[in-house]
Amino acid sequence: MERQHGLSYGTNRESRSQGTWSVGLTWERCPLWALGTSLSQDSSCSLELQVMDQLESLRLRDLITSHLISYFTILRIPCYIQDLEGSNQVQEAVRWLVCYSSPAAELCCETFTHFMEKGINCEFGERLSRDQKDRQLAGLPSQEPEIILELYNSVIEFLAGVVSAKQLCSPSGLAPEFFRLNNQKCLQPQGSMPEYLEWLRSITLSLQLPPVVLPQKTSWQCTCSSILKYVHHLFGSHPSYPLLHCQVEHLLSQAYCHWWTRDFGEQQEPSGMEVPWDVIICLCIQQLLQTWSPPRQPGTPEAGEQQGREIQVCYFKDSLREYCLPDSWENTRLKTRREMLQHEKEQAL
């Protein structure tokens, strides 16, 4: 057996051979492989029995049952293809390979900061913005904080999986025909690739936010105090914390004034539903991305990190399409749409 460019094939240099029988295999979302075996004319067994024996040895049907491969086919390729029959058999084998081979995956490379900002904006920011507009049109309060945080944290977990996928452990082991690199300046990590990917995963997950803990049936003043404590817990040690503190206080004051100008009936003070959770959490995320710096990369001096802006990440572009929304967000969006329809019906009356 010989190996070249990710394909395994067999050749037989004996003049009395019947040729090479090629077995084409495909894995889902993985490169396609071709295996070759030579069958001898001198064997006491017929060619059909030899083929069946080879199939039994390769255990191809067991591989399909175990979902390790998707398909296989058997084609006879002669040692010499000068005649028309040999050429046709080779063409048939190539057509099968082309039919079942997946398109080349695009391997992207960019800075960690740009990757995270783009991913958070696409999967979290745009969805939250649409939800804000829909709820405002329906006259609904802000989305609940636990729902927003669960969406954000699930996006961070998804992005962590993209940049630390196991397929990236040895991209040089892939045949070049199976992927395209969008940036030839992709930096190679120092040290072990698995350790580097695990480090990337850990620093990405460090961008998650903890849940907001509020006491049950609390007053407006206690609610505001809990929110300010939450912000202080996250960013109290950063020089920009006083500005963030003032911004959150201003939002809470605006919410109180907005409640006061409405007809609030017998209600003595606003409830927690008046808190603009979506805006406050977005401010926290913005502050986190601006002030965050990763731990030291294994095998490099800490001064070389430059607050994570020079960290390079590689990922397969198609993997960005695999994000699945949390059930809580999908259920909340369905509820919001029903409330919007109810609001439209009431407005039409």
Automatic annotation (TrEMBL):
InterPro entries for the chain: MCM3AP_GANP
Domain of life: Eukaryota
Limits of the Germinal-centre associated nuclear protein MCM3AP domain: 56-346
Protein name from the UniProt record: Germinal-centre associated nuclear protein MCM3AP domain-containing protein
Gene transcribed to yield this protein: LOC100918392
